[in-house]
Amino acid sequence: MNAIVVGTRRSQLALTQTQWVIDRLQEMDPNLHVSLEKIVTKGDRILDVTLSKVGGKGLFVKEIEQALLEKRIDFAVHSMKDMPGEMPDGLTIGAIPIRENPHDCFISQDGRALKEMPAGAVVGTSSLRRQSQILSLRPDLVVKPIRGNLGTRLDKLKNGTFDAIVLAVAGLARMNMSYDQFDELSVKEMLPAVGQGALAIQCRADDAALIERLAQINHEETARAVQAERSFLQSFQGGCHLPVAGYAEWMNGEIQLSGLIGDPEGKQMIYGAALGTDPVQVGKKLAQELQEQGAEDLLDRVRNGLVG
Ligand SMILES: NCc1[nH]cc(CCC(=O)O)c1CC(=O)O
């Protein structure tokens, strides 16, 4: 039994990430045969609306999870960032490979850095997390929603719809798009999204043979860092559509987790950090710390604003 079916979205990034995983698996076993099954998800069909307004969890993963449960596919490669906190019964994350660059980058039309933009410049992003942090640093800029895959977003930058956009470095790096003129933002300027730069390989929980295979490309440090970030995020309802950031790094054998909750206007920021060796506990500890600083209150106000 050496033939495996992998499900993937059709976007260039999804295809590239999936191929990267297939390559790693075939390095381990040159006889492994993998075939691709392309799946269109709800998130791919919604093009013109800001995702945070659509609500709904896991717009990019639901159809894929269905295909896994129905055994039409055996595994799927997701951006960890797009994975909802909860997973249907019967599915599991079989591996989390080594993380790509977790940072965000600011790409402007004329190569200016975020600090150098003129007042009133229009920045495209549909992420409340990015919007909040951009406006906190530069309240004089204007943030407008942008949708579409990486190529579409870069086109909208080139054709002048936006003066600048913010993207994850990981997506560009995976697709070998190098921009000499991009301003890589530090975690101080722009704390990344939970799971940013990491992949999640999802499969059926009872597929022991495949799980054994996937374990070979699991990266323990990445997996535990991401676990801490997700434990933090899961303490807040509806996390992925809220202005919440979380990023964990290893420091002298311990996980150092930073987290941030902002308001969409970038006027209020609640920031904290926690240290420890148990990922789930570190996540909970940080959530607790932010709660003590009034996180739930701030998030409630954001949630109510979104409803209107
Ligand atoms: N929300 C879309 C998305 N999901 C994953 C990535 C690529 C980077 C990653 O793996 O975190 C992107 C694009 C972006 O945010 O620029």
UniProtKB/TrEMBL annotation:
Keyword set for this entry? Porphyrin biosynthesis, Transferase
* Entries under Pfam families matching the protein: Porphobil_deam, Porphobil_deamC
Miscellaneous comment: The porphobilinogen subunits are added to the dipyrromethane group.
What is the organism field in this record?
A: Polycladospora coralii
Q: What task does this protein carry out?
A: Tetrapolymerization of the monopyrrole PBG into the hydroxymethylbilane pre-uroporphyrinogen in several discrete steps.
Protein name as annotated: Porphobilinogen deaminase
State the taxonomy lineage: Bacteria, Bacillati, Bacillota, Bacilli, Bacillales
Cofactor-binding details, from the entry = Binds 1 dipyrromethane group covalently.
A molecular function annotated in GO for this UniProt entry is: hydroxymethylbilane synthase activity
Cofactor dependence: dipyrromethane
Question: What residue stretches are annotated with the Porphobilinogen deaminase N-terminal domain?
Answer: 4-210
Please write the reaction equations for the catalytic activity of this protein.
4 porphobilinogen + H2O = hydroxymethylbilane + 4 NH4(+)
Cite a single GO BP annotation: protoporphyrinogen IX biosynthetic process
Keyword Transferase on this protein?
yes
